[in-house]
Amino acid sequence: MAALLGACSGGGSSTPSATSTGEGDATAAPSSVEATAAPSNDGEAGGWCAPGARAEGDYTLTFGEMGAATDEWSQHMGRTWRHYLPFTFTNTMDVRCVFGLTVDLAVDGESGRATDGFSVPLLPGQSFSGQMFDLDGVLGLPDAEVVNTSAVLAPSVTKATSGRYFGDYYDLTFEVGERDGVGSETVVPVVVTTTGVGAGMPDRLFSARDDRFALLGLDAQGNVITVAHNLQEALPVPGESTIWFALAGGGASGYERELMPMSTYDSVVSWTFVAYPYFTDLDK
């Protein structure tokens, strides 16, 4: 088993809820799970973080021991087993924020052996857990569940940025549909009905024709265990749209791939749907 140096800090089955609905950016949940209201929108000083670099104290990032999995990603790699480092990232600020992280993996003191990263919107105190790095090629591991290596692994954050997480930018309801496709090519539709723009939200820049979208799967504690992104034409207000998400990211490696296997979706107990303009007046 590889040795892990410390932790970084500051540096295809059915959809769990095929017909979930929810208000705005609030969590939509199965009938047996209570939906969680979105936070209030009280401006950059107390509601959402300012865009820019993030430093120690704004978040924590911890890694566990090397894990093994046999899934759609190992199949893409032409292997039965793949190996990774599990991680948990937490927003330690008192405002919601869209985090972007780049993480370097050093092996036996040599940096740059692998690079990974993610983008995720998080509420204050909320965590995101996933799997980082394809260790098999980096370490030359055999195709087996249990492997032994003397390599010393040292992940470290090389870039941490933030963007505004508006919360309920739109007044809307949404419904998560059935999954379509197999393995890494699985997609899911989200039908969104808008009735207006939330009170106190900044105006969309005239040139910003697109919206950013995220579909977050939450566990029973309200933490993020799956994340899928999309960027497409802005939601009509009022109106109805269908947003498609490639649940696994649509690719087998690098930044195309989300950092969790498809089996993680079986543990999702509620959804959060995020939608907001690519640029607003605050970006002038």
Automatic annotation (TrEMBL):
Compositionally biased residues, Low complexity: 14-24
Name of the protein in question: Uncharacterized protein
Region span, Disordered: 1-49
- Recorded superkingdom: Bacteria
